[in-house]
């Protein structure tokens, strides 16, 4: 797999199996792989993730959306992504950092216009930029660490969708 993945890697695949057969095969596979992997099926959506015992903070999940085509084949749209809880927390941190930066930039501008000292405000703004850069590289590192597990999820998916 390409090591320069986008933050949320997407793919599209077509198989000659029907949606019902794919869902049944994933349902059957669920019982044999239970401690190492987790499979969740809702309607035409299937989520594959690493099992609780082997899950790390960088563990990805794979979301498959099944769509029936006119010729009887099934279109599969896949999306690799981080754990939703971690992703939500990560976005929360980004919004907090952006909010603190905006608030202190307004305060620094006000103090500058009033000819007051604003060194502390600039320091806090600079630390928010440094913290944001740290989060960026932390996310890149976690994504790179998750690539081997992405491969395992891909192999698991191919067991079912490959005819």
Task: Characterise this structure.
The chain is an alpha+beta fold and 163 residues long. It has two domains: 10-82 and 154-161, TATA-Binding Protein (2-Layer Sandwich); 87-141. The chain has a five-stranded antiparallel beta sheet with strand order 1-5-4-3-2. 53% of the residues lie in helices and 22% in strands. Keywords: Membrane, Transmembrane, Transmembrane helix. This is GTP-binding protein. The chain crosses the membrane at residues 85-112, 118-139.
List keywords for this structure.
5 strands; five-stranded antiparallel beta sheet; alpha+beta; 2 domains; 163 residues; TATA-Binding Protein
Instruction: Quickly give the CATH architecture of the largest domain.
Output: 2-Layer Sandwich
Strand portion, in percent?
A: 15-25%
Low-confidence stretches: none
How many helices?
4
CATH overall fold name of the largest domain:
TATA-Binding Protein
Structural class: alpha+beta
Mean pLDDT: 88
The first-level CATH class name of the largest domain: Alpha Beta
- CATH superfamily assignment of the largest domain? Kinase associated domain 1, KA1
Q: Please write the string of helix (H) and strand (E) elements.
A: EHEEEEHHH
Instruction: State the end-to-end distance.
Output: 21 Å
What is the number of domains?
2
| Residue share in helix | 40-55%
Strand order of the largest sheet: 1-5-4-3-2
Instruction: Please provide the count of β strands.
Output: 5
Shape: elongated
What is the gyration radius calculated from CA atoms?
22 Å
Protein name: GTP-binding protein
Transmembrane segments: 85-112, 118-139
Organism: Flavobacterium sediminilitoris
Keywords: Membrane, Transmembrane, Transmembrane helix
